[in-house]
Design goal:
two-stranded antiparallel ribbon; 3 helices
Length: about 80
């Protein structure tokens, strides 16, 4: 998903914006094992619905396609509170 978003942003003939979730010590990673677990925390954020993976490509609208793409699966809401 990251590479798709970067490719689309690079291909767009104008300003592009990429927003990423990057957990840190202030998000409680210190008590969960430190920054070495940040990628795991990112996966959990997507799985529980805290962070969604999506892209918006305005060029698709010109082709008559939906410019919004949701890449993440349906969240597991039972894990949201624990996250």
């Amino acid at each position: 998903q990251t590479l798709k978003a970067i490719r689309e942003a690079e291909a767009y003939p104008g300003p592009s914006l990429i927003i990423a979730y990057a957990p840190c010590i202030n998000h409680g990673l210190k008590r969960k094992g430190g920054m070495g677990r940040s990628q795991h925390e990112e996966e959990l954020a997507v799985e529980c619905g805290y962070w969604h993976l999506w892209r918006y490509n305005p060029l698709l609208a010109d082709e008559g396609k939906n410019p919004f793409t949701l890449d993440s699966k349906a969240p597991n809401w039972e894990n949201f509170r624990d996250f």
